[in-house]
Write a structure and sequence with these properties.
This protein is of the alpha/beta class. 26% of the residues lie in helices and 24% in strands. The chain is built from eight helices and 17 strands. The chain has a seven-stranded parallel beta sheet, with helices on both faces. The longest helix has 17 residues. It binds flavin-adenine dinucleotide.
């Protein structure tokens, strides 16, 4: 068993691809900053990629005390083998107490592999992180039993304590340009012939659009929209507002929209400034994906629909009448 007292500081993985940083890393720095202050330990961003020195500086402006930077050709494109090897090597060298990774496709891939190589535990797909007052151990919270229960999971006997955390759950701290910190440059090279996967093609999730988890305005439709054709009224409102179209799972199951638009527990967790829930009842699995939204506006013909209990503004009525009127009113502004 590891000597637990050798392990110090909280790490956050800053994921990027082709130099473009995913927001979730910076979001995690905000919760990690709070935990690091509580534990009185350092907060270190781990930045891996190509041409990502700016991301290391930005991570410090978003709350990290310092950053470890591995910047080289091998990491321009995500590769499970190279990323898992590099992160494992860094953990073995520096021994962090906790390591947080965004639950993106790549984060979900690499996180468990690193944990396995280090013979430690990992809690996947968390929606909250805190510290157990009595033991100082990190408490990783994640939905279970179809989102009906929240499980609190701890890893008391192994280090680092690892978890993947859903994008959109935490808000980034304000960008503070006055923050300074050391950027430690590490050289870790991985022979190309050891990489067992090959990238054949890249397909953008939503052609020409913004991904749901990065969107500031989302207009989501549910079963109440009635048909694939009628989704045109949702798309028009989204277009006028410069937003992205989302939907409930019922809509995906009915084949009205592709799964990439689904919001909720088995879809995307989102954190827009403005979220429209139109013809969506507000099932717990849908609400699990929208809790970090700043403002929720619900439109539903049923005044008792559960969505109204989480909405900041609610309109009771027929969406087929209300949505085109809203679109007209916003277009006129
Ligand atoms: P409904 O519940 O059928 O609601 C339709 C609403 O539209 C009603 O409130 C109705 O009053 C209103 N309406 C109807 N006509 C009109 C009209 N003309 N004008 C105004 N309002 C109207 N769901 C998700 O959304 N995302 C997930 O990620 C997700 N994951 C799940 C994971 C698991 C393991 C399980 C078991 C379920 C999951 N679900 C998820 C499904 C979830 O339980 C609900 O079934 C689903 O969210 C319902 O979608 P809905 O609100 O569009 O449909």
């Amino acid at each position: 068993m590891a000597n637990l007292s050798d392990y110090k500081n909280i790490w956050v993985f800053i994921e990027s691809e082709h130099g473009k940083v995913k927001n979730v890393g910076y979001e995690l720095l905000s919760v990690a900053r709070k935990l690091a202050d509580e534990k009185k330990c350092g907060l270190i961003a781990v930045v891996l990629g190509k041409n990502v020195e700016k991301a290391a500086k930005d991570a410090i402006c978003y709350g990290a005390d310092s950053a470890i930077l591995v910047d080289s050709d091998e990491y321009e494109e995500f590769s499970t083998d190279a990323y898992a090897a590099a992160l494992t090597e860094l953990v073995e060298k520096y021994k962090p107490e906790a390591f947080m990774i965004g639950a993106t496709h790549n984060g979900r891939d690499v996180g468990p592999r690193v944990a396995c190589r280090l013979q430690t535990g990992l809690t996947a797909d968390c929606t909250d992180i805190s510290i157990d007052e009595d033991t100082g151990v990190i408490v990783w919270t994640r939905p279970t039993f179809g989102g009906n229960l929240m499980a609190n999971i701890m890893c008391p006997d192994h280090r680092p304590q690892m978890g993947t955390v859903r994008p959109g759950v935490f808000k980034k701290n304000p960008y503070d340009e006055s923050r300074t910190g050391e950027i430690i440059k590490e050289e870790i090279h991985f022979a190309k012939d050891k990489i067992r996967t090959r990238l054949i093609d890249r397909v953008e999730e939503i052609a020409g659009g913004v991904a749901l988890d990065e969107a500031e305005i989302i207009v989501s439709g549910g079963r109440g929209v009635g048909s694939a054709e009628n989704f045109a009224i949702i798309e028009e409102l989204a277009k006028v507002l410069g937003g992205v179209v989302g939907c409930s799972r019922a809509v995906v199951d009915a084949g009205w929209m592709p799964q990439v638009h689904q919001v909720g527990q088995s879809g995307k967790t989102v954190a827009p400034k403005l979220y429209f829930a139109i013809g969506i009842s507000g099932a717990i699995q849908h609400l699990a994906g929208i809790s970090a939204s700043d403002t929720v506006i619900a439109i539903n013909k049923d005044p008792d629909a559960p969505i109204f209990s989480v909405a900041d503004y609610g309109i009771v009525g027929n969406l087929n009448e209300i949505v085109p009127e809203l679109t007209k009113a916003f277009a006129a502004r």
